[in-house]
């Protein structure tokens, strides 16, 4: 059995076990800029300063540790896990600039906000600033510490290693764990919080589901101006003001639930969809390196004028279908999100491992009702929309599948395309119809697998709201260069990656992309510290680069990823759900 790998990345990637941090929840519009609160390695630089030995053999130490924000943020606070061994329990923390890979001038001094407990207890203590600087994206900064003469403090990692007290006089560069007195010390523990400058919605948002509607089709000359022809040129960006389109989206919409389909003229490196007015992010929405018609779901924040922008590396047609939009929680009738442990609703293949709410292959050219409230997954009757993952397992190509509310006519939209006849998956937020059911229409006969990871219902206890973020790359296992692919399970630490989110987060909105090294049976994403469910997030039997949106619940700001075969994994974060 493969031992799970830990992917902890304050300068590279996903979530973390935060038994200490969870005691100090942040507000929903405060993001974790960087953190190192877990046992995994921290990849940026640190400095250790050793002073005179203290009574009992303790050594006075101070430290500085660097971090690089991925999003421009206004500094809010720094948190350190601390115990006071002697002297008055006071400490000063600073944020410093970078000077050729070591701490430079101090930009802000932060004062203690709370009590440092006596040893051996420890607590995550906040340090706040009166005038807080803006931390620019992509620029390294340093957390530095100092204490009055004679005081001795210890910072503790989650594995209870002593990490320092503070006489910042001489420095020695420490790039990894160091040893002293027979003990091994981890890189200093810390957390930096801030409020993003742009691209995040500080308001909690709730879903208004709608009958799926085609808002953009660059093949269609009958669409309103700006929403139809021409095709997207390679290397060009085009913006679409969604409230001005043909689907009746109101100006109050702050984010959109979309299905994005590309119909490329040839090989397509990727397309990226993001809020108009923001810089184009280092993130992708969809790849089609084989030039085939492909689709991917996306939740995209509204930008300037309610518009979203689309960039394509190569010439392609683009189709955007909308199945809902998110509005501020002050707007009536908005639905809250309730995450679930991923669960399999439908598996029409012979002898499925769990009971399926429909059996037998779906007949081509017909619609089939899926009675979701009757499933084994305990979806309540109050649910008005579902977060689903559809997987086609066809004997031959399927032009498309369309999911829509039971009781409605088949809309002119698509949820999933499979022109090659391989196993193909796509996520969707599917509005419920009569009896809480949804219908699926398929153009050709195929088996179908449907998994659920949450639902939207009227706001009650446990309801979560959406908070949008600038699209941001949380994980790329291809870096550093020469890194091997993985197979089996890895754990992903999200909270300290600099892309956003808070310790109150209960689900993430990811775009997951695999770069397989051959045929990939499936990838599964699920909450860390829970049993791996019998569900899949995406498949790549053809060995092609493949993407899918994933709403991944989390219990502890961490998630797990399992791959059946060797692959690289890229995770881009678009938002999160929190109370």
Set down the secondary structure blueprint.
Blueprint: E1 5-8, E2 31-36, E3 46-53, E4 59-67, E5 73-86, E6 92-98, E7 103-113, E8 123-128, E9 134-135, E10 141-146, E11 152-155, E12 172-174, E13 178-180, E14 183-185, E15 190-196, E16 205-217, E17 236-241, E18 255-264, E19 268-275, E20 286-288, E21 294-301, E22 307-312, E23 316-328, E24 335-347, E25 366-370, E26 385-393, E27 398-405, E28 416-418, E29 424-431, E30 438-442, E31 447-458, E32 465-476, E33 486-493, E34 507-516, E35 520-527, E36 538-540, E37 546-553, E38 558-578
Parallel strand pairs: 1-33
Antiparallel strand pairs: 2-15, 3-4, 3-12, 4-10, 5-8, 5-9, 5-11, 5-15, 6-7, 6-10, 7-8, 13-14, 16-23, 17-22, 18-21, 18-23, 19-20, 19-22, 24-31, 25-30, 26-29, 26-31, 27-28, 27-30, 32-38, 33-38, 34-37, 34-38, 35-36, 35-38
Describe the protein.
The protein is an all-beta fold and 579 residues long. The protein folds into four domains: 144 residues, Jelly Rolls, CATH 2.60.120; 154 residues, Jelly Rolls, CATH 2.60.120; 102 residues, Sandwich (Jelly Rolls), CATH 2.60.120; 124 residues, Jelly Rolls (Sandwich), CATH 2.60.120. The chain is built from no helices and 38 strands. The strands form seven sheets. Strands 2, 3, 4, 5, 6, 7, 8, 9, 10, 11, 12 and 15 form a twelve-stranded antiparallel sheet that branches. Strands 1, 32, 33, 34, 35, 36, 37 and 38 form an eight-stranded mixed sheet that branches. Strands 16-23-18-21 form a four-stranded antiparallel sheet, with no helix packed on it. Strand 6 and strand 7 form a beta hairpin. The chain is globular, with a radius of gyration of 25 Å. The N terminus is likely disordered.
């Amino acid at each position: 059995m493969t031992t799970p790998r830990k992917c902890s990345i304050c300068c590279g990637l996903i979530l973390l076990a935060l038994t200490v941090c969870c005691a100090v929840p942040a507000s929903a519009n405060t993001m974790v800029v960087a953190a190192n609160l877990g046992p995994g390695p921290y990849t940026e630089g640190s400095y250790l300063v050793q002073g005179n030995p203290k009574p009992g053999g303790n050594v006075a130490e101070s430290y500085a540790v660097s971090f690089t924000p991925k999003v421009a943020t206004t500094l809010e606070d720094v948190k350190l896990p601390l115990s006071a061994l002697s002297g008055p329990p006071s400490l000063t923390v600073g944020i410093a600039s970078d000077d050729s890979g070591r701490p430079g001038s101090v930009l802000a001094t932060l004062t203690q906000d709370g009590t440092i407990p006596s040893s051996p207890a420890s607590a995550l203590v906040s340090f706040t600033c009166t005038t807080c600087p803006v931390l620019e994206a992509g620029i390294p900064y340093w957390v530095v510490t100092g204490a009055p003469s004679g005081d001795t403090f210890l910072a503790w990692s989650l594995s209870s290693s002593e990490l320092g007290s503070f006489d910042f006089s001489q420095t020695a560069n420490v790039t990894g764990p160091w040893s002293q007195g027979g003990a091994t010390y981890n890189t200093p523990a810390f957390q930096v919080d801030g409020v993003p400058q742009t691209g995040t919605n500080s308001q909690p948002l709730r879903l208004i589901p709608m009958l799926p509607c085609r808002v953009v089709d660059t093949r269609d000359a009958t669409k309103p101006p700006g929403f139809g022809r021409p095709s997207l040129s390679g290397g060009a960006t085009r913006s679409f003001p969604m409230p001005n389109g043909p689907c009746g989206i109101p100006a109050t919409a702050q984010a959109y639930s979309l299905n994005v389909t590309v119909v490329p003229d040839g090989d397509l490196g990727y397309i990226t969809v993001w809020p108009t007015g923001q810089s184009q992010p280092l993130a992708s929405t969809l790849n089609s390196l084989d030039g085939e018609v492909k689709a991917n779901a996306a939740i995209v924040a509204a930008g300037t004028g309610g518009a979203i922008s689309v960039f394509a590396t190569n010439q392609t047609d683009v189709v955007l279908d909308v199945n809902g939009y998110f509005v501020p929680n002050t707007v009536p009738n908005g639905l809250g999100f309730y995450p679930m442990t991923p669960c399999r609703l439908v598996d029409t293949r012979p002898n499925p491992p769990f009971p399926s709410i429909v059996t037998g292959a779906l007949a081509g050219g017909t619609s089939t009702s899926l009675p979701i409230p009757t499933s084994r997954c305990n979806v309540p009757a109050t649910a008005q929309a579902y977060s689903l993952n559809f997987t086609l397992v066809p004997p031959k190509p399927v032009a498309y599948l369309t999911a829509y509310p039971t009781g409605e006519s088949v809309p002119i939209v698509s949820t999933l395309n499979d022109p090659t006849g391989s196993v193909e998956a796509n996520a969707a937020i599917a509005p419920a119809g009569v009896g809480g059911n949804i219908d699926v229409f398929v153009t050709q006969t195929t088996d179908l697998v449907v998994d659920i990871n949450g639902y939207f219902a009227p706001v009650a206890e446990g309801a979560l709201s959406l908070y949008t973020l600038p699209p941001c790359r949380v994980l790329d296992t291809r870096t550093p260069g020469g890194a091997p692919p993985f197979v089996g399970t890895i754990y992903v630490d999200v909270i300290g990656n600099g892309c956003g989110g808070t310790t109150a987060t209960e689900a993430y909105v990811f775009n997951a992309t695999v770069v397989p090294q051959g045929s990939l049976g499936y990838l599964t994403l699920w909450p860390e510290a829970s049993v791996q469910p019998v569900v899949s997030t995406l498949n790549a039997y053809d060995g092609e680069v493949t993407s899918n949106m994933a709403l991944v619940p989390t219990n502890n700001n961490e998630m797990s990823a399992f791959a059946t075969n060797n692959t690289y994994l890229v995770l881009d974060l678009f938002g999160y759900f929190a109370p």
